[in-house]
Amino acid sequence: MFQKIVHDGHEVPQDALLVVTIPKISLRGRNGLLIAAVTTAVIIAAIVWFGSRAPYEPLLRNLTEVEAGQVIAQLEKQGVPYRLEAHNSISIPADMVRKARIDLAMAGAPKDPSSVGWELFDNKSAWELAR
């Protein structure tokens, strides 16, 4: 059924065929096998690495420098990984966005001291606002 393989006067088991065959491959062929093996390993490693990374989503966009600083300080305090992107946008892992927004709102961040929002109505009467 199986053909007997003899190498250097010794009978070789069938599963050792690869070990016997590799030395017979030319240097160019061995280099090709090595390149193919390394390339395959790099591709598999890249797929695993990129596949295991959490996708990031924007937490807040178009922040002022002051607001971005406040948000980053709060995220670092909570241990949330972040990326500062173009136009002072901050992205965090997608599965953490909702909780982080709630935590930031509870902490009062972001708050730009130069911007005026609903607090405008806090210290003024309706008559003063109508003028």
TrEMBL record:
The chain crosses the membrane at residues 33-52. This is Flagellar M-ring N-terminal domain-containing protein. InterPro entries: FliF_N_dom, YscJ/FliF. PANTHER family: FLAGELLAR M-RING PROTEIN. Signal peptide: none annotated. Pfam families: YscJ_FliF. It comes from Magnetofaba australis IT-1. Keywords: Membrane, Transmembrane, Transmembrane helix. Residues 52-128 form the Flagellar M-ring N-terminal domain. It comes from the Bacteria.
